[in-house]
Design brief:
The structure is a single chain. 63% of the residues lie in helices and 8% in strands. It is α/β, with parallel strands linked by helices and 440 residues long. A four-stranded mixed beta sheet has the order 3-6-7-8, with helices on one face. It has a two-stranded antiparallel ribbon with strand order 1-2. Strands 4-5 form a two-stranded antiparallel sheet. Helix 7 (194-211) crosses helix 11 and helix 9 packs across helix 11.
């Protein structure tokens, strides 16, 4: 069977409500496309990244996984699709026939007549890993670490509860745990999820403070070049740009960072450059203050998201409660929602998962409805596949191009620059220039 290309789908970002296109694989034949196996195992397969806010969204889609070498024929149907039995059977039947025709005569085919079905993608991934020789015990340990991260993140708002949980789980807070947590932080940074990255970074820093654990992956192992670059930038940046620079480099500002900074100050003092040493000492105090403010904001975001979710879960009319809290349905809320959903799925709480998925669906719809006509138009422009298409759309709807519209484009560009999404910001700036030129 020749490689099956991905299918294009239209999505709405659950964080910023931007509409965009993405590709989804429904047939993953790693016999023909071995690179898809690593994409699945790393969590990147069918992961759509919003071009506007860089948030990652897992696309809920049925999937066939085929591996002739290990005789695996696995079928995944997400519960939220509510696919009818006849639809599932037709999907599986079509895939089975195609795979049977593609197999060589001498190759085993019996396993294709008995597909294994999954309603949890995690369970399917576990089966793939087991076929690769990774013991179930190791898989269960990783699952427990992820669940503990969710519990600790939820407990951050309550100091006493957090300390109690740390004490109860102190044996589990080992190098492997911090490696998993640091991997989540790195993934969040790469995908531009600023708020969730701040929350997880706050969690890691808080754990270091409470436990005294020092051998932190991503902390003491920070690349020396990256560390030096961060120090150089924060030492030379103007005061009015310092806060933004600290926010962008928060992941690198840790014990090792301040240790290296202090060493630089001491070297300057020994060289007799006391004025420069004094300047860097004052700058260090500024950085510490900004870091504290960033971490407080991250904790406040987390606490706000938890509080809103609790209200929604307890409300007799879930949709009405969501609509009354539309201004609070932000990235922090979505992060808390996703964290709770993942924990419920791992615990096998199907009803809770379904309830949270319905909250997610309604929240996404309500946020989209709440957008102004200007923001909806901007989303359409950002969705254009080429600059030529967006320019054409601007000219076709010239009546909507006003001074306020241009101002909004520049405001969004500035917001994206502050989030570190430079490509998105550049696109918004380009649109602002083109729209501005149309006013004259």
């Amino acid at each position: 069977m020749p490689p099956v290309p991905p299918q294009p789908v239209q999505l709405t970002c659950p964080v910023c409500s931007n509409n965009f296109r993405a590709n989804v694989y429904t047939i993953v034949d790693v016999t023909q496309q071995p690179e898809l196996k690593q994409a699945l195992l790393s969590g990147q397969l069918n992961m759509a990244v919003c071009p506007n806010c860089r948030s990652g969204t897992m696309i809920a889609a049925p999937m066939i996984y085929h591996d002739a070498e290990n005789q695996l024929f696995l079928v995944y149907f997400p519960q939220e699709l509510n696919a009818r039995p006849e639809e599932q059977e037709r999907f599986i039947g079509d895939a089975t026939n195609a795979l049977m025709r593609s197999q060589l005569t001498e190759q085993p085919r019996g396993y294709l007549l008995n597909p294994r079905r999954f309603i949890s993608l995690g369970s399917l991934v576990d089966t793939v890993l087991e076929a690769e020789g990774i013991p179930r015990e190791a898989l269960e340990q990783q699952r427990q670490r992820i669940d503990l991260i969710s519990q600790l993140a939820s407990a951050l708002e309550d100091e006493a509860q957090f300390v109690q949980l740390v004490e109860q789980q102190k044996d589990a807070l080992n190098y492997e745990f911090f490696a998993t947590l640091s991997a989540f932080i790195d993934a969040g940074m790469q995908e531009g999820r600023a708020d969730s990255t701040q929350i997880l970074t706050l969690l890691r820093d808080k754990l270091v403070e409470v436990t005294g654990f020092s051998d932190i992956p991503g902390e003491s192992d920070v690349d020396e070049g990256e560390l030096n670059a961060a120090i150089e930038r924060l030492a030379t940046v103007d005061d009015d740009a310092l806060e933004q620079a600290v926010a962008e480099l928060r992941h690198a500002i840790d014990y090792s960072f301040f240790q290296a900074w202090t060493e630089r100050i001491e070297q300057l003092e020994q060289a007799g450059q006391n004025d420069e040493a004094a300047r860097l000492t004052a700058r260090r105090r500024q950085i510490l203050q900004i870091v504290e403010e960033i971490d407080k904001e991250a904790q406040a975001l987390l606490e706000g998201g938890v509080a809103v979710l609790r209200e929604i879960m307890a409300a007799p009319d879930m949709e009405a409660a969501l609509r009354s809290s539309v201004d609070k349905l932000d990235e922090a809320f979505m992060f808390v929602l996703a964290t709770n959903m993942a924990a419920a799925e791992r615990a096998g709480q199907a009803e809770t998962v379904a309830h949270l998925q319905e909250i997610e669906r309604l929240a996404t719809e309500i946020v989209q409805e709440s957008l102004s006509p200007e923001d909806r138009f901007i989303n359409e422009l950002m969705l254009a596949e080429t600059p030529q298409e967006s320019t054409k759309l601007l000219r076709q709807r010239a009546a909507q191009v006003t001074p306020d519209f241009v101002k909004r484009l520049n405001e969004l560009a500035e917001e994206q620059e502050q989030r570190g999404a430079k490509e998105v910001a550049e696109t918004l700036r380009r649109l602002a220039r083109e729209a501005g030129a149309m006013l004259f």
